[in-house]
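Example 169.
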Amino acid sequence: MDLLPEIARRVSIRKYSDEPLSDQQIERVLEAGRRAPSAKNRQAWRFIVVQDPDTRKGLEEAAFGQEYITEAPVTVALCTTNIEYKMPNGQLSYPVDLSFAAAFMLLQAEHEGLGACVVTTFREHEIKSLLSIPYSMRVVMLLVVGHPDEAPEPPARHPFKRVVSYEHW
Ligand SMILES: Cc1cc2nc3c(=O)[nH]c(=O)nc-3n(C[C@H](O)[C@H](O)[C@H](O)COP(=O)(O)O)c2cc1C
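Predicted structure in complex with flavin mononucleotide:
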């Protein structure tokens, strides 16, 4: 199957049914993240799978009441296990590494017919305390996953010519 149609079809889902995910579905989404590339293949990440309803409620509160976090059966907290490593270009690797993992998970979720949404609007210290995350580590994003209860049109993207150039800026 072509990958591009699935990439084009994927859309952030913010309304979920209460249908649970199978363990195999959850594992395949996580496996996609585990297979993602990372700087120097350091894989300095931890994916915390949250299914407990009370903990999900706590995540929702930490995320300023974004209700779809408790509607969806699973939220994965994507955390880094190293906040210092810089790539040879001088930039921190962890936001890049975790973004690749999230992107791979998003695409696997799409392939499974599931819905997902990245969430970064949260009070990090509350999530750390809820999930016993060491103070020195970072929660880069939450990934909410479940069965979609809406079918929004994918938002428009800038046209090809605006974002791509050849040989120079
Ligand atoms: C780095 C990043 C942070 C995001 N944070 C949030 C968020 O806190 N809450 C939310 O509802 N969506 C969040 N999103 C989802 C974006 O709003 C969404 O990807 C964007 O509007 C494009 O829509 P699409 O995913 O449907 O293509 C985030 C996406 C990214 C990549």
